[in-house]
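Summary for the lay section of the report: proteins are chains of building blocks that fold into shapes. Here we show the chain for MUT7 Exonuclease and then a coded description of the shape we predicted for it.
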Amino acid sequence: VSRQLKEEIKRGFARLEDPFAGLLAMLESSSDWKGKGHSLGYCITTELQLWIKEHPAVPQSGTKLKKLQARVLGLLSQCPANLLDPLISIYQLHTADRNYLLEHVNHLYLQGDYKEAAILSIKLKLQPDQDVEKMCTPLLLQDKANLVEDYVGEYPELQSKLLQTLDMWCDPSFNIRDITRPYQGLPRYKPEKFNRRVLSKLVFRLLERFNVDPALCPNVINQRHLRTLNYLFYKRFVEKTMTEENWADHVQSTVGENQWLQGHLVQLLLRHCGVRSTARWARRCRVPPEMLPRAVAEELKKLHIQDRVEEITKADNYEDSKKKDYYQLPIPRENIHFLHTWEETLQCWEKVLQPGRVVGVDMEWKPSFGMVGKPRVALLQLALKDEVFLLDLPRLLEQAEAEGEKEKLPRFIHRLYSDAAITKLGYGMSGDLSSLAATCSALKDTEKQMQGVVDLLAVDKQVDGLSPEHSHEERGVRQPEKGLSLLVHHVLGKPLDKTEQLSNWEKRPLREEQILYAASDAYCLLEIYERLCKDPESFGLSSDLTESLVGKQSKKNRAKKQLNKQEAPSPSGQECQGPKTEPSHPPAPISPREFSVVCDNMLQGLGRYLRCLGVDVRLLDNEDDHRRAAEIARQEGRVILTSGLPYQTLRSQVGEGRCFSVNCSEKAKEQALQVLKHFNVQVSLTDIFSRCQ
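The coded shape description reads as follows.
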């Protein structure tokens, strides 16, 4: 707003006998302020708010104020959100009679203005005097779950009431139509958004956001546990990709002493096993005899006490084929060290934190099976050329806290990840570091400080011929390989044995199979890296892969060069050298309408940002191969915008200067500035939003 307009508004207030009534008269007779954005009405209202602060000698009170409050309440349900707070403040609605305010909100509700009634209730803090189920039901039917969250956001008692209501609706015996029937004619009603599955997801979101005890929602929790139980039976008896011990750990921790789940466990056991095996598992899971079918109860009486449950199904020859079919650790078992004391861990650090080291890093956590909360890392694996260290993170953190040295672990992790002289290998590092931050809050910024890291997930996407259908010979019921197992199979000849992947990694002691699995997951990264660096071309990778992967120069030192010199970030987040020659003079300026690009699928945010500026953009879908960008570029005369290893592959498939590597660590705005500067694209005001978004 111009200074001249502000001064004119202030002079207008000074001339009015009653500026409060004057503002309302203006708003009531004008439609300008009802639109979105900063209208003239909004400017005048906010200026009055400031003017009142400067002129405290004009307070409103008594009958006159009540009349003004009655008038302003009539406006609030129609006005845009940005006017609510100023009007509530100016007319002191928080001091108005509470019953009068509740009546007004109830009138809005009865008119069908449910959203407006909820927003006004939030602004005036009326929720404690309202029925949370009544206020929130129509909002949920209109798919306004975010507004429902805000409605109960500051009131723990209302959060509990809402969660109990939602949990009641999720009871399989509850008829949801009883809820929806009174609202059949509701505008913007979305019945497809109102079912047990959607409500269950909302319950879990609210439990996590408000940190409420899940025991408050037994129906939703039981249903989620039952889905977990069905999944575990599928993995064990259909896919046959879980060992018995691993499966048993999860079944017992899922069912616990919950009799409802115990009943479902017995039914699943009878469906997949014989009566004898069902009786044994019923005893192991402490299922009360009165819950068992007669045949199972009779079998239970015949059983002698056993320490170990026998195999449920016929042997599938899994153990016999393991060494023949799967990747095996090339180091002796005694070189795998499980560390649960700080004395041992400090010795490990001395070996790992050496300049020039290449370290395979992996992490394991207990599967959450969709329950509340982020997974917490239970095991950190560090692989060196001759040995592997398995760090018992929960135990080490507990010891450090007891000794008053909470910073011990974060200090080591920060040193490891920020040292450019140590090459860290991982696979899907972002997910690992997110779980690490959930385990120890002091590690939340680790990803921002990373140097000298190589995420083989980025390399994986570029390796020729890497697809599930090429990943295995037919081996009966064996599942196609994927992820790291597929990369290991392609590069080293055999896949990883993933039968322990879904283990309970928090249970101690770890089983021998878990220890070998965890060590293999970290050590195989060293072997893949070594093989790819020695012979990248045989895997369809650029011949300068070695230089791009092991380059140690930090991001910070080269960030400025990135704007003027085209460089390709390596999968490690470090930069690798692009073309060495810079153009002798900048290209001629062009408008966004003349600039056509195709954005690789890791740059969708950049693509959308450029489109806002008027650039002709095509975006690759997530499932598209990077090489699709080269096809589009050749057919339609577009410039390719990509990052990392795809740049090495794509730049050779188009003309010189027609492929540009963007720094993936930057935000979309900074990436766009980099692209516009490089290609000398001049953006004018008329270009902005000139294309359909």
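Put simply, here is one thing we learned. The first strand starts at residue 336 and ends at 339.
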